[in-house]
UniProtKB/TrEMBL annotation:
It comes from the Eukaryota. This is Uncharacterized protein. It comes from Plasmodium knowlesi. One of its GO terms (molecular function) is protein kinase inhibitor activity. Pfam families: DUF1168 (PF06658).
Amino acid sequence: MDIKVVDDEIMLSDGRVIRMPVKQTEEKEKEKSKGKIKVDKVPNVWGSSAGAGSDYFDLYRKQRNEENERIELMEKRWKEYTQNQIFQISSQKKYQNRSSTSGEDEMVKSDKEESEEDKSDKMGTAHPVDTDTFLVVKEGEEELF
């Protein structure tokens, strides 16, 4: 069964009619959920509790472990994101370099030249990538800046 949308009509004093659509409950719920911003707040009430009882240590340890896991997950996602962005930029530059070459002689390469490029890629030679806009994280470091 289809539900018809009923329009509310308002007649102004000069004779004009203004129609205002009646909002459905689903639309209202969507609008409410759009405007909310979810903030992760982790209250650390056990940080400096000098005279706390023995049960507070277990609660503190649980909260600390959850927070550490959350931070590690955020760091992992950020690292994946930056690596993906760097890869996308390098692949776009390669594509632009290939499409910008003119002439069929330059576009067609011999198998030997292509295999040499593949070897250099596998050997680990770095491609010039503009990383000014990205945060580059070194593997051995623990802190992110």
